[in-house]
Amino acid sequence: MSTERGAAERIRIQIDRREVGWWLLGFVIAGMLLLVGYRFVGTLVLGLFAYYAARPINRRLAARTGRTKAATVTLFVLVVPFLALLAGLVAAAVGQLQALDLLDPGVYARFVEPYADLSALWNDPQRLFARAQELLREPIVKRGVDTAFGVIGTLGSVFLHTTLVLALVFYLLRDDDRLAAWFRDEVARPGTVLERYLENVDRGLSTAYYGQMLTVIVVMFVAAVVYTGLNLVAPPGLTIPQPVLLAVLTGLATFIPLIGRGIVYTAVLLLLIVQVLGRGELVLLWFPALYYAVTFFGIDSLIRYFVRPYLSGRSLHTGLMLFAYLLGAAIFGWYGVFLAPLLLVGSLEFVRVVFPRLLAGDLGSESPADAARPGAGDAERASPPPTGPSDEETPAPGD
């Protein structure tokens, strides 16, 4: 009998050692993933925002075209217009640089001519190489080279992060149902507290992030109406330039925390003041003053304190959403406006679903009240994805 008990103890110790080894490996993997997530936290939350903002449209398309095609169409319908607008702004900036003759090679030739005879150098490659080495030692040239490499590095970083965001959004849109099904089968079984918590977080984020996208659209519309209306009462020759384009910029500036729209308002205000001072008619300063009052105290207050909290938090407390956006932007920077809803929803659902059961020591059951609680995302889950074979089950090359 004692021999059998000793054998059982040895087996249990051996099993426990194997479990400890696997747990250690799991902690190592989790630590590496957390490190990567910390380094790319802004990119990840931006991709998460884009996914939830695009998901309602994607699911409607997926019911007709399939997951892969729907994800592709949704991605390009949302991203391409933004990239086109950004390219237009860059082209306009390049046009202004050309107007200043900064891209004229003659400008740089005049700078180099005192140091070298360019026509002679082109005919003597060795001399050209030697003169190039001498120029690279000049402080102003070294600063220019460092600046150029800095710009190249910045562009490369932007390209990397943009690619990561697009890839994350595409695969989440295409495979989110399969990922959720695997998670329910292997981790969060139906009816458990963990499943209910994650479902509530998913619904809350869908409401918050989709509302954030709606906020940008509302800002564009309101700004276009206000700018056009101000131009109707503006003095002759003193109008807000390109009101529709300016309204689009105002909407996109909403993504910049705290000061985004203020930058646009201030730039236009300074332009109007300069125009008034250039004409020497100080009595016309009433129009810049009116513009200042309508934009800073009208549009901005309306969006910040009413529209954004309401649209982004229809299932959450409006005041909590307001504090989340303000504090998130102030603490975390540019990505705080995307991270704040995630932190708020995760915390609220933990207090609502998990914390009472922790106090009661009952994490293994699900109360009927929680199971019946409606969510903003129930409509999205009303029609489950098809489980039969489809063209999306066989990935196309490059998927």
Write up what this structure looks like.
- With 399 residues, the protein is mainly α.
- It folds into two domains: 41-187, no CATH class; 192-362, no CATH class.
- Helices cover 78% and strands 0% of the residues.
- It has 14 helices and no strands.
- The protein has helices at 2-39, 41-65, 67-99, 105-112, 118-122, 125-136, 139-186, 193-233, 243-253, 260-279, 286-312, 318-332, 336-360, 368-372.
- Helix 2 (41-65) crosses helix 8.
- The termini are far apart.
- Belongs to the autoinducer-2 exporter (AI-2E) (TC 2.A.86) family.
- Residues 368-377 have a biased composition (Low complexity).
- Residues 390-399 have a biased composition (Acidic residues).
Q: Could you list some keywords that capture this structure?
A:
globular; mainly alpha; 2 domains; 14 helices
Task: Provide the fold topology.
Layout: H1 2-39, H2 41-65, H3 67-99, H4 105-112, H5 118-122, H6 125-136, H7 139-186, H8 193-233, H9 243-253, H10 260-279, H11 286-312, H12 318-332, H13 336-360, H14 368-372
Helix pairs in contact: 2-3, 2-7, 2-8, 2-13, 3-7, 8-9, 8-11, 8-13, 9-10, 10-11, 11-12, 12-13
